[in-house]
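We include the entry.

. . .
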Amino acid sequence: MLSKVKHDNQGTTLLELAVVIGIFSIITTGAVWLLITSLRSNDVMWEQLTTQSEGRKVMFQVVNEARKAEESSIGSYPIVIAGANELIFYANIDEDSFRERVRFWLDGTTLKQGVIKPSGSPLSYSGVETVIELAHNVKNQVQGIPIFTYFNESYTGIENSLPQPVDVTHVHLIKVQLELEKDPTATPVPLHVESMVQVRNLKTN
């Protein structure tokens, strides 16, 4: 008479269940980690694209307005101040016939623009300056990089910029550069945007 042998499958089943749960936990943890990393990467990429777009927009405005620099409406020289992080000049940047006093300067990490319209009789630039913020997270000062550098009419591409303090009557070409970085912990280096502008009304050749 054959005896029946009972097999205890309960222990094996629990072990298999523990293994499955462990494997599932590892896969789930990995998937969550990949998802978080992907989302962070997308955020960083989006921030960089947004910063790049804003930087180019600001650069276009600065270059476009500086290119128009000319004598003020009361006969003052086109450029007032040619500083490393401040540029003041006169230019007609709106639809009227007057030349506004335009100022670009770095206030901490914010690039600002100030505009004074001439008014009164006789005309003067003593009115209130209208100020707007153009760009935030500007790291030029932290990086030790000037926003504005200046060159004379003999510049061919290899000469050094004019030393500070700059004699504004020697300025014919302006280099504008911005170092933008929204989150230093997320990006390896600041985004660099630069352009050169030839001031039309200062050309002598």
Q: What stands out?
A: The first helix runs from residue 10 to 67.
